[in-house]
């Protein structure tokens, strides 16, 4: 096997972590649908059509918005700032919402000890 086709786990002798969320496919799909419903609600609260949001985020086709809103895709992390701006949100607030649906384990680690105001709890 060539080096181009060898994965990092084979090179290091350590198995790679292939399912970081330990979620079933149905759980992942449901989280994506919930995230899509959140995106749709945010878009509609701003009075934007799917086409208008697509223009704001630089998506070539507005059908991409429809796919996201129905849970059939996810926003690439390198586009989070564009989406936050398009949805008139602060970047960290938008990323927090995306983590809730796209990476719930990381979300829980980062935010599970937050107080009611949303600020990180101080260490004891």
Describe the structure.
With 124 residues, the chain is mainly α. It has one domain (29-124): lambda repressor-like DNA-binding domains (434 Repressor (Amino-terminal Domain)). Helix content is 55%, strand content 0%. It has seven helices and no strands. It has helices at 8-12, 25-45, 50-57, 63-69, 80-86, 91-102, 104-111. The longest helix is centred in the N-terminal third of the chain and has 21 residues, at 25-45. Residues 1-12, 14-20 and 120-124 have low confidence and may be disordered.
What's the topology here?
Layout (H helix, E strand, L loop, with lengths): L7 H5 L12 H21 L4 H8 L5 H7 L10 H7 L4 H12 L1 H8 L13
Helix pairs in contact: 2-6, 3-4, 5-6, 6-7
Structure described in brief:
The chain is mostly helical. It has seven helices and no strands. The chain is globular.
Which characteristics define this entry?
124 residues; mainly alpha; 434 Repressor (Amino-terminal Domain); 7 helices; 55% helix; globular; disordered C terminus
- Per CATH, the superfamily is lambda repressor-like DNA-binding domains
**What is the name of the CATH topology?**
434 Repressor (Amino-terminal Domain)
* Number of domain modules: 1
Mean pLDDT: 82
Strand content: under 5%
CA-based shape: globular
Largest sheet composition? none
